[in-house]
Amino acid sequence: MMKLSFFKSLNNKLFGWYIGSLIILSVFFYVGVHILAIPRGTELFFLLFFLLAIIGFAIIYNITNDLTYLTKKIKEISHENLRDRIVDIKRDDELGELATAFNNLLNRLDEAFKREQQFIGDVAHELKTPIATMRSALEVAISKDRSNDEYKKVIHDSIIETNHISSTLKNVLDLAWSETPHEQKHFVKLNLSKLTTELIDIADKLASSRLQNVRSNVSSKIYINGYEERLARGIINIIENAIKYTPPKGIITVQLSKKNDRAVLTVRDTGQGILATDIPHIFDRFYRGSTTDNVFGSGIGLSITKSIVNLHHGSIDVKSQPGKGTIFTIKLPLSEN
To answer: CATH code at 193?
Structure first.
């Protein structure tokens, strides 16, 4: 909240008018009427009193008029018009601060409603198809007598769809969490070098089954402030993507270093790459590029990663050449102490 100067404060304005009026009237009466004996001094005294009263009335009327308008607007706000804002109060005093604070409150409420609607839409979008597919398969299965092997196949396929639904729900919940504002004071100091090394060990195990080689170059003692579990989820999403889209015997390289006041994490692969037309959209929720048809996924992992990086006041960039590979670069502010 901004600090008001002395003459912009309502309290000071009213106090200044009150004290100023008393001083002006007292000086005029004592000097003009009592000492100098100005002709018609008494009438001028009452005229001056009347003018000062009008000035005071104008000040109070202006204040109460804006208060009435502000009260009216507050009563009119509901979930249906959260985008309305108070724009007619343009003051530098406490009323202006109140109007600004109320607008900021509406901004936060509006964002919260949008996140809720987006979450509901995401869940509906992702669950509609697998649930419909599973229901259709079950209805077909009970439409007539079948062999045990056929029933087992239907049950097996249903379990796969159930796992898909469970994984999707977890991803959507993670995305909703990562897009919810959190206060930076809840961050903890964490060793990003140690975390990255642990994630490289996981990547090495994932890549070994595909005969891929994981290389690393991690600088020690790089500290940042944040949520360790969430950062790990965001980084592993990038690493898993590199493994998914890199052919057998390919190379995934993970590097961590310092540059100025930033920790710089890069994940490089020798995979199929990303088309230039897809790059502007890869962080959009549920977007799957034109070269991902044969790879299982919901198209939400990179959205989660970007939200987590944004939450930590960082940035994420991607460079890619089809057929040659992709480089993801995450930059995060270093811990100050």
So the answer is: 3.30.565.10
- Are 45 and 36 in contact by the 8 Å Cβ rule? The answer is no
Query: Cβ contacts of residue 254 below 8 Å, gap of 6+?
Result: 196, 199, 200, 203, 214, 215, 216, 217, 218, 239, 265, 266, 267, 268
Rounded distance between C-alpha atoms, residue 204 and residue 113, angstroms: 41
Count the domains in the chain. Answer: 1
Neighbours of 249 (CB within 10 A): 10
Cα–Cα distance for residue pair 202/213, rounded to 1 Å: 13
The model's pLDDT over 239-260, given as tens digits with 9 standing for 90+, comes to 988 998 899 989 999 999 999 8
Arithmetic mean of pLDDT, 291-305 = 61
Tell me, yes or no, whether 294 lies in a domain. Answer: yes
- Evaluate whether residue 281 is within a structural domain: yes
Convert the pLDDT of each residue in 115-168 to its tens digit: 667 666 666 766 776 777 788 888 888 888 888 888 888 888 888 778 777 767
Q: Residue 273 is part of which domain span?
A: 185-333
Give dist(CA 226, CA 331) in Å, integer: 13
